[in-house]
Amino acid sequence: MYGDPATIRRILTELGDTWAVVGLSNNEDRAAYGVARVLQRFGKRVVPVHPKAETVHGEKGYPSLEAIPFKVDVVDVFVNSALAGAVADEAVAVGAGAVWFQLGVVDEEAFARTRGAGLDMIMDRCPAIEIPAL
């Protein structure tokens, strides 16, 4: 199940507090900007991942997951579905604990690969909606 409640709870409460947000930039009109702020309010460290590698919400940005010099617990994906599978594969390669595809981001093959690699994964959901409900 792409939005399994037990998996959502585990990712948000048990997995860890360092979230790489792929697609996060200083564009306040983008959903990633607001979602990252909500994650921070709930105690998560947000690491921006964007080709521009901008500092966002006080956190240094990186151009890719592999450029981050520390472990990330969750990779939150704000790219279109056609690009999301490659991000999920990169998350597996860097040793992330989970992958979260945002609302509207769906790639069933990436879901199967990521779960097959042993990572938790949520797809087509938003942590900014889910976390306050906990």
Q: Can you give a write-up of this model?
A:
With 134 residues, the chain is an alpha/beta fold. The protein contains five helices and five strands. The chain has helices spanning 5-13, 31-41, 81-94, 108-116, 127-133, and strands at 18-22, 45-49, 74-77, 98-101, 120-122. A five-stranded parallel β-sheet has the order 2-1-3-4-5, sandwiched between helices. It is globular, with a radius of gyration of 13 Å. The model has no long low-confidence stretch (mean pLDDT 95).
Could you list some keywords that capture this structure?
single chain; alpha/beta; 16% strand; 134 residues
Instruction: Count every beta strand, where a strand is a DSSP E run of 2 or more residues.
Output: 5
Helix content: 25-40%
Q: What's the story with the biggest beta sheet?
A: 5 strands, parallel
Major sheet: order of its strands? 2-1-3-4-5
Measured between the Cα atoms of the first and last residue, the distance is 19 Å
Number of helices: 5
Q: Give the DSSP E fraction (strand runs of 2 or more residues).
A: 15-25%
Order of helices and strands: HEHEEHEHEH
Radius of gyration, whole Å: 13 Å
What would the average pLDDT be, to the nearest integer?
95
Indicate the structural class. Answer: alpha/beta
Looking at the chains present, what oligomeric state does this protein adopt? single chain
Extract low-pLDDT stretches.
none
- Taken from the alpha-carbon principal axes, the silhouette is globular
